């Protein structure tokens, strides 16, 4: 997976920087030997630290601190739930959520898949439908807590699994399922419209040392943009 800091950089000052993380690259080192965001950045910004994480397949805003003081300042805001995060997701089914609060405790003690359980940690996500199509919906999600796979699990729990998220009840979406009379060229096989979980971290809002609000927004990457556009065309 190629990853260009210059192309991904959204904003920076003397304390923090924000990237539009592309899908397919891990935030931190995992079991694979593939390059991760933190490793790549530390070759340019020694001592940089990740303030929060995005799943490997999730694209969007990722904020990192350039120094220990900045890391502590923002980490405390995350801990106190003072950072606002906004995600967009394309889900299966037609849903008309109106600031609907999904309040379902999650068990994050074991390896994924994460499960809903009354004995888990309190987890809340507020969802709002943005646009409905024939069989799918574009949804805005505001996680009020920060549990592993929270948005993915909560949307599945609400009967709206994310397109491409096979771990939590989603499935790949093909153009042939949207377009009547669609025919493949002879000798070719059809690929999904998006080859990952259709989840994008659109925005992060926090406060700097002076108390000024910092809002960072990440445009859709090519695959997510193409998926939404295709749904708009085909209904």
Provide structural commentary.
There is one protein chain. This protein is α+β, with helices and mostly antiparallel strands. It is built from five helices and twelve strands. Helices cover 18% and strands 29% of the residues. The strands form two sheets. Strands 1, 2, 3, 4, 5, 6, 9, 10, 11 and 12 form a ten-stranded mixed β-sheet that branches. It has a two-stranded antiparallel sheet with strand order 7-8. The model has no long low-confidence stretch (mean pLDDT 94). The relative contact order is 0.17. A hairpin with a 3-residue loop joins β1 and β2.
Please give a quick description of this structure.
The protein has 235 residues and is α+β, with helices and mostly antiparallel strands. It has helices spanning 5-8, 37-42, 68-79, 150-157, 222-234; strands spanning 9-12, 16-21, 49-50, 59-65, 84-92, 100-103, 106-107, 115-116, 124-132, 136-143, 199-207, 213-217.
List the topology elements.
Elements: H1 5-8, E1 9-12, E2 16-21, H2 37-42, E3 49-50, E4 59-65, H3 68-79, E5 84-92, E6 100-103, E7 106-107, E8 115-116, E9 124-132, E10 136-143, H4 150-157, E11 199-207, E12 213-217, H5 222-234
Parallel strand pairs: 4-11
Antiparallel strand pairs: 1-2, 2-4, 3-4, 5-10, 5-11, 6-9, 7-8, 9-10, 11-12
Compressed to H and E, one letter per element, the order equals: HEEHEEHEEEEEEHEEH
- Outline type: globular
In the predicted model, the low-confidence regions spanning at least 5 consecutive residues are: none
Counted beta strands: 12
Q: Oligomeric status of the shown chains? A: single chain
Question: What percentage of amino acids are in beta strands?
Answer: 25-35%
What is the mean pLDDT?
Answer: 94
Whole-angstrom Rg: 18 Å
How does the major sheet shape up? 10 strands, mixed
Q: Output the number of helix runs.
A: 5
Secondary structural class:
alpha+beta
Proportion in helices: 10-25%
Task: State the end-to-end CA separation.
Answer: 33 Å
